[in-house]
Each structure stands twice: as C-alpha cells, then as structure tokens.
Write a structure and sequence with these properties.
Order of helices and strands: EHEHEHEHEHEHHEHEH
Oligomer: single chain
Helix content: 40-55%
Structural class: alpha/beta
Largest sheet: 6 strands, parallel
Distance between the termini: 9 Å
Number of helices: 9
Length: 271
C-alpha cells in the first residue's frame, strides 16, 4: 500500500527538508499546503496575501517533491466557504480560485477544502443551518465553474463538526450541486461518529478524490493518529482496496516524531 503524509505535518521544516524526510521514509505522496519554514500562505479556515508568491517559485516547490518521487495530487486551501459577509466570502472564493490556477499550472488535479466554520459556534445549528447550507452550495457551484475553467477538481472534506456531517449528506450535496468537478476528500475520522466504515464507501465511493489517514474516538471532537481511535482499520482498508484502489492515502495528524510509526501501523493493518 502506498502511503503519503500531508506536508503541513512539518511546519518548522522547509519544503526541501520535508521532501527529503518523506523520501527517506518511503512515503509516496503529499497533500501540499503552503505552510513551512519558507512559505507562510496557508491559513486554516481563512486566507492570506499570496501576492509575493510567483508562479516560478510555486512550480519550484512542487518540483522539489516530484524530483524525490513524491506525488503531489492535492494543493490544500481549506478556507471558509460559508462566510456571512458577502465581501468576505467572495475574497475567500478568489483566494481559492488562485489555488486552482496554481494547481493547473503544476498539473495538480485536486484542490481540497472543508466547508468552513465560525470559531466558537462550529457545527450544525438549527437556527442557521439552512442558510449556511445554501451558502455552501452557492460557493461550491461558483467554484465548480472555475474548476472547469482550470481543469481541476474540488475535493470537499466533510466532518461531523461541520454542516456536512455524514457520508449521506455529502453525497446528497454533490447531487444537489450537480457538477462532476465536485469530489470528496474522504477522511474516515471525520465521519465515523455518523457513518459506518461501510456507509462511507456505500455513499461516496464514486466520488472519492483521495483519502486522509486519521482516526477519532466516536465521542471525541479532535482527531488522532491512525490506530489511536475507534475506526476498524482492517475493515476500512479492505473496503479501500475494493472501492478506491490506488487513490492517494495521505496521513494527517502526524508529526516528525511519529509519522514513520504511523506509516508502519497502516502497513500492518493492511497486511
């Protein structure tokens, strides 16, 4: 089984150092986020000023990984698609569009994001759910048109702590948006409280772009490293081979001290 690691696992390292670490450990891929000791453009649930990042510099970063045999299937955005102020939401969408443009330049197929949230009031709230869901659909529809233009795909990461909290709701959202440019970043830790391992693939198998390797206790808010939660990894990986064989499986919630051990765990579960 080929295992990758998200680049943001090593924020104090340069991209060259991260690429070397992944190569030495035998990792196959990375979800590239522009947060490192030498780039500071990735802002979780927000955006940053990318005006001083040249196309040449970005392409050189991607080449750093590829030259060491590390596939780069995804350029991470993870901005807020449900911002209430229209000018704020539009600025986030334009920030996202710039990532799609860069992904197109580098031949990166997937540009992932979560739904977005408001600190201190994350999750499903009956007083605002319908308005936020409609706002999310509107944002995704706008982005899908841009994705067509740039020949890339949006990979949406659903989560029990966001307004798309289950595999079924993610599938229903995809059908409502109605664009084949909208795919799913399947993170089992984000769905295990609301969806079984089987249901994740039952509803989402045709829509999977790639997968995160992360775990969670069913009644915990925070994710954990693979093997530290309640996911049945032997079952999950059996289903992976049946429904998503060969799609990037990229570890998240690991660090420089434990990522090799977590890679070993995955190989053990897979065996």
């Amino acid at each position: 089984m080929k295992i990758g690691v998200v680049s943001r696992s090593f924020p104090k390292r340069s991209h060259l150092e991260i690429a070397n670490l992944l190569q030495e450990a035998g990792a196959s891929s990375t979800e590239l986020c522009l947060i490192s000791s030498d780039t500071h453009y990735w802002t979780y649930n927000g955006r940053s000023d990318m005006s001083d990042l040249s196309d040449e510099r970005f392409l050189s970063i991607v080449k750093t990984y590829r030259d060491r045999g590390i596939e780069v299937p995804a350029l991470g955005v993870f901005t807020n698609l449900i911002a209430r102020e229209e000018n704020e939401r539009q600025a986030n969408l334009e920030y996202y569009e710039n990532h799609m443009r860069l992904a197109n330049l580098a031949g990166i197929p997937f540009v992932p994001t979560e739904c977005g949230f408001f600190p201190g009031e994350r999750g499903v709230n009956t007083d605002r759910y319908e308005a936020e869901f409609d706002r999310l659909k509107d944002s995704l529809s706008w982005l899908c048109k841009k994705a067509e233009q740039y020949n890339v795909y949006i990979a949406l990461e659903a989560s029990l702590v966001d307004i798309v909290p289950s595999a079924k709701r993610a599938r229903d959202l995809i059908e409502q948006v109605g664009s084949d440019r909208l795919k799913v970043l399947l993170d089992p830790a984000n769905l295990i409280a609301n969806s079984s391992e089987e249901d994740m693939f039952r509803y989402l198998a045709p829509h999977i772009a790639y997968l995160h390797g992360k775990d969670r206790k069913v009644n915990d808010v925070w994710g954990r490293a693979v093997g530290d939660g309640d996911i049945d990894w032997r079952l999950f990986l059996k289903l992976y081979h049946k429904y998503a064989e060969g799609k990037p499986f990229i570890l998240e919630y690991v660090n420089e001290d434990n990522f090799r051990e977590i890679m070993r765990r995955v190989h053990e579960y897979d065996a």
